Amino acid sequence: MNLEEQIGAIDAQVDRLGELVRLAQAAAERAEAERARALEEQQAQQAEQAARAAAEAAEAIRAAEAAAALTASSASPDEKPTLRVARPSHNELTLSIGAQTVTLHPEHIGQLIEELANARASMTPEPPMALPAGWRFASTKNPVMATQKQANGDRLLVARHTGHGWVPFTFSPDAAVQLYMMLTQR
Fold this sequence. Notes:
Blueprint: H1 3-74, E1 83-89, E2 92-97, E3 100-104, H2 106-121, E4 145-149, E5 155-161, E6 165-171, H3 173-184
Antiparallel strand pairs: 1-2, 2-3, 4-5, 5-6
Helix pairs in contact: 1-2
């Protein structure tokens, strides 16, 4: 093979490599576009599920409010409506006020807990600073957690409680050090 034939063969190989690179880039672009489309579909499904759960919870809350209003209007001035809570099955809870009953499923209960926690956080007096005697609680062992550093240096810690859902806490740098010391002391 003479020099010109060798140069021609090398040129052909370079052209082939260039074509392979272009094909690989096109495949990578298609894969990225497919991944982005799948992510958008997943986010849309999650948003739809969240909207459905929120609508169901809002309906349950409206029904509870209507029941409370009905009970209040039908009760004598001396008679206070009574809230009754029952658990007819593992995955449902019923709230009854007077003659009105609302059934809540896990997604409704999660929404209700979140709404109640947000409302309670703005009320006074605040919950007691010390644990009350006889306080009952359900703890979550080794919860899933996420952290984030805030622009002002504070640390956000979000822990997933099996009953309360995702519970956020913000710690100043000093409080974060105190928490670390409390968790690591013997």
